[in-house]
Amino acid sequence: MGNVLRNDTANRSPEQKTEEERWIEYRKTRDPAIRETFIRQYAPLVKYVAGKVAMGMPHNVEFDDLVGYGVFGLMDAIDKFDPEKNVKFKTYAVTRIRGAIFDELRSIDWVPRSVRQKTREVEETIGSLEALLGRTATDKEIARSLGMSEEEYLKTMLKISGTSMLSLNDVWFSGDENDKVSIGDSIESPSSLNPDVIVEKDEVRRVIVEAIHELPDKEKKILVLYYYEDLTLKEIGKVLEVTESRVSQLHTKAILRLRAKLTNIRKGIV
């Protein structure tokens, strides 16, 4: 009877099998036909992620290009997905698709040099100031260190907000090329605060999560809602009862503050 069932599974086309059956078979055979069914099935997910990324990008970044970059992320996700790890493929794929889009944007260097320089200047200022103070710096303190008013500082945050969308896909290397942790992957859901799940066996992940915990509450919420709960900046604004532009400012500040903290930790400045 068992052989009959196994033969029945083997004789059915990929479309006739359950998704679980296809994953098991694909892990064993790497059958291109099965891979193609997954690409077709999850193609709408690529458009969804590309659409979300496009909302934070300048007008010169084409939506169709983002979709094209995302397809490579989907294929990478299909090849590397392990169904035995009890993670939904959709959750896993979103991270890979978004990462592939950002990797390509970074490689074509779409950010104007002046904006990149200003971003670096703000990030370095935040890092130096918070290392000196030993605490989170206020907007007024950061603005003063930059030699600008608080209003000018907030306007600067809006100007550089598009570039900060890339930042949580930067990778913290903890060893060789195969031993790396995405900052975005380390953000935890408020409904899943089990340290064993978040930390796992990686000390680097612990450092990243601690750095996120030290952010001001509103900035931390925005990172969780945007990168984990997959809300748009507009949707986050409704949740927090602030304008979309204010969410954009807070998101940018959170990213620059987080990157500055991690840079200090790398350099041994605590």
- Major sheet strand order: 1-2
Which assembly state applies to the chains in this document?
A: single chain
N- to C-terminal separation? 65 Å
Shape: elongated
- Mean of the pLDDT scores? 79
What is the CATH class name of the largest domain? Answer: Mainly Alpha
Going by helix content, strand content and strand pairing, the class is mainly alpha
Helix content range: 55-70%
- Number of domains as seen in the coordinates: 2
- Radius of gyration equals 21 Å
> What's the architecture of the largest domain, going by CATH?
Up-down Bundle
The stretches of 5 or more residues where confidence is low (pLDDT under 50) are: 173-179, 188-195, 197-201
Count of DSSP E strands? Answer: 2
- The sequence of SSEs as H and E is HHHHHHHHHEEHHHHH
CATH fold assignment of the largest domain: Butyryl-CoA Dehydrogenase, subunit A, domain 3
Q: Figure out the total of helices.
A: 14
How much of the sequence lies in strands comes to under 5%
Characteristic terms for this protein:
two-stranded antiparallel sheet, 2 domains, single chain, 270 residues, mainly alpha
Describe this entry's structure for a reader.
This protein is mostly helical and 270 residues long. The protein has 2 domains: 17-107, Rna Polymerase Sigma Factor, Chain: A (Orthogonal Bundle), CATH 1.10.1740; 113-266, Butyryl-CoA Dehydrogenase, subunit A, domain 3. The protein is built from 14 helices and 2 strands; from the N terminus they run αααααααααββααααα. The protein has helices at 2-11, 19-29, 32-54, 63-80, 89-107, 113-133, 139-146, 150-159, 161-164, 195-199, 203-213, 217-228, 233-240, 244-266; strands at residues 171-173, 180-182. Strands 1-2 form a two-stranded antiparallel ribbon. α4 crosses α5 and α6 packs across α7 (139-146). Mean pLDDT is 79; it is low at 173-179, 188-195 and 197-201.
